[in-house]
Amino acid sequence: MCASITQLSHCVVDCTAENIIAFERGKAITGTQFKADVSSLSASLSELESNSFALYYENAYPFAVSLFALLHSHKKICIAGNNKSVTADHLTEQACVLLGNWQGREQTVTASKVQDVQLEPLSMDLAQLFIYTSGSSGQPKIISKTLQQLQNEIVTLEKYWGALLANSEVLATVSHQHIYGLLFRVLWPLAAGRGFHSEMYLSPEPLLKAIQDTSACWVASPAQLKRLDDLTDWKKIEKLSAIFSSGGVLADQSAVQIQQCSGQQVIQVYGSSETGGIAWRQALDDSLWTGFDGINITLDKKGISHLTSPYLPDNKPFVLDDKIELASANRFALLGRLDRIVKVEEKRLSLDEMEQSLSQLAEIDQATTLLLTAKRDKILAVVCLTPQGQESLKQQGRAVLIKQLRKQLMTQFETVVLPRKWLFVSSLPVNTQGKINQQLLSQLVSLDAKRYPQVLSYEKQDENTVLSLQVSDKLIYFSGHFPEQPILPGVTQLAWVEEFGKILFDINKPFLSMEVIKFRKIIPPGTVVNLKLNWKAETSKLYFDMSSTEGAHSSGRMIYGERS
Questions:
Q1: SS (H, E, C) 250-311
Q2: What confidence tens digit (pLDDT) does each residue in 225-284 have?
Q3: Helical axes 31-46 vs 60-72, angle rounded to 10°
Q4: Is 4 exposed, middle or buried (0-12, 13-18, 19+ CB in 10 A)?
Q5: Count H helices, E strands: the chain?
Q6: Could you give the 3-state DSSP secondary structure of residue 227?
């Protein structure tokens, strides 16, 4: 454990040259530099009339500088979960100035050149921080936090795992724009005197390469830990002081694999933006969660869980969306979310139960389900196949495999609630929180069936994203084009490329032009084509290649940007 925990109110004020705050591109940043950066930016921010600012930074160090500069200049701070244009629109409508990386919409604030700006300790009880998170209705939910609430969590985390971490560097594959990353990779290290890596590593491989001979811990999510395989550098994982996981429940098979290959027992943390940390678990032979000190959960007559916690803004019980089974005063089992009960044709269905049943089938490795609401509600099953499932798909075809999967599910579910749409994926896509990207999956399968092909599969191949598309003979483009030999128009293929490109990638610029467009073979009705897409953000070019078993159909590049 570090010698002491610094109050967040004094994190900048008490910085000295001996403190290593962060590592930016391999260079250590001292407390003196951090204090100077915060002081100069705070002086500039204090001169601005705007009172509300929204932060989004890809790297943690500039985020920390701006966060504390805004705190010291007494501004309201909104921490956004993403920097999408819709989010930016919402925040600017709330009169927030955008700071950081906002696709060109951010305001540049030049740090003051004034030297020796004196900073005073911060108030711990002011509600200056507002965290934006996804609400159950799909609309952003705003959660206010005081520094004291966050400090209470930090003290608890250090009490539980400070000695284990000692002077470890902190590396992460999760974003600091969410409460888990904010606490574990920025605020806790700052208060405890541990240096954090500014870069958010997108996958385990570059993170492990960045670890030198010093002690280090990994702040991860279940989705990232599931990607570890035989090619993983298990020796480096073995040397980690700890691995933390939050944002969802880590699959038992992943936890077992990590322990068997490296000896590491992943520390899983359960909580939310609203509640803060609630409980943790680590031992593989114990599925129960243990509540943190001060946590109390009670169940009412309807089985709904009520939480009291020192991390909540008041003493009022908080109603949890999770179904909990109490084993003792502070030990419990998680049984899924209460709000994942849906109705299909007036029949109730637990999506958690459906996912568990799918994952138990020999053909399926992982699965997630969504309720699609249109003229008729239906369930979408998104599944990763096991080697057995992949072989069945290859030998029997998609329709036969789906029929077999539905037949197995009929032993447990009524026919009306069985998945009517299926999407085969190489891995479940996740967002910056490490959670399954349900919005992406929903968009892929909810396009107008008269104008777009059916997406059969989604696969990541290195830098490419590959979609398998069924070109239906019911598409409006085949009517009259041509009467005796219907073919898919080239302009339609280009429209599909742009639509799927905008769904899969963060393309915020307008379409500008095209390059090296080639149409090689016609696409008749009924063809299954593979659309390979590769977005180059640095050049604003979307590369595409459309092919099938008949060979290459079309290829080229779509260019995005402003006209000069």
A1: CCHHHHHHHHHHHCCCCEEEEEECCCEEEEEECCCCCCCEEECCCCEEEECCCCCEEEECCC
A2: 888 988 899 999 999 999 999 987 888 888 999 999 999 999 999 998 889 999 999 988
A3: 50
A4: exposed
A5: 15, 30
A6: coil
Residue 201 DSSP symbol? P
Coil, strand, or helix at residue 23?
strand
Q: Rounded CA gap, 234 and 63, in Å?
A: 31
Q: What is the dihedral of CA 269, 274, 276, 279, to 10 degrees?
A: -40
Q: How far, in Å, CA of 65 to CA of 71, rounded? A: 10
As a whole number of angstroms, the distance between CA 458 and CA 424 comes to 6
Residue type, 87: T
Strands 76-79 and 52-56: what pairing?
parallel
* Tens digits of residue pLDDT in 135-173: 433 346 789 999 999 999 999 999 999 999 999 999 999
Give the burial string for 342-373 (b: 16+ CB within 10 Å, else e). Answer: bebeeeebbbbbbbebbbebebbbbbbbbebe
Rg (alpha carbons) of the chain, rounded to whole number: 26
For the chain, the helix, strand and coil percentages under 3-state DSSP, each to the nearest 5: 30, 30, 40
How large is the greatest C-alpha to C-alpha distance in the chain, in angstroms? Answer: 82
Question: Checking phi first, is residue 413 left (phi over 0); if not, alpha (psi -120 to 50) or beta?
Answer: beta
Beta strands of 80-147 (E only): which ranges?
Answer: 97-100, 129-134, 140-145
Residues sharing a CB contact under 8 Å with residue 327, sequence separation 6 or more, in sequence order:
288, 333
pLDDT digits (tens, 9 = 90+) for 383-396: 999 999 999 999 99
CB-based burial label for 261 (10 Å; 0-12, 13-18, 19+):
middle
> pLDDT at position 140, please?
62
Angle at 244 between CA 243 and CA 246, to 5 degrees: 150
Give the count of beta carbons closer than 10 Å to the beta carbon of residue 558. Answer: 22
- Whether 319 and 306 have beta carbons less than 8 Å apart is answered as yes
pLDDT digits over 111-129, tens only? 877 666 789 999 999 888 9
Q: How many CB atoms lie within 10 A of CB 415?
A: 10
Of 119-123, 285-289, 347-351, give the lowest mean pLDDT range. Answer: 347-351
Residue with tokens 């190489």: 426
pTM reported for the whole predicted model: 0.71
DSSP 410-436: TTTS-GGGS-SEEEEESS--B-TTSSB
545 DSSP β-pair partners: 532, 555
Coil, strand or helix: which one is 237? helix
Other CB atoms closer than 10 Å to residue 412's CB: what's the count?
A: 12
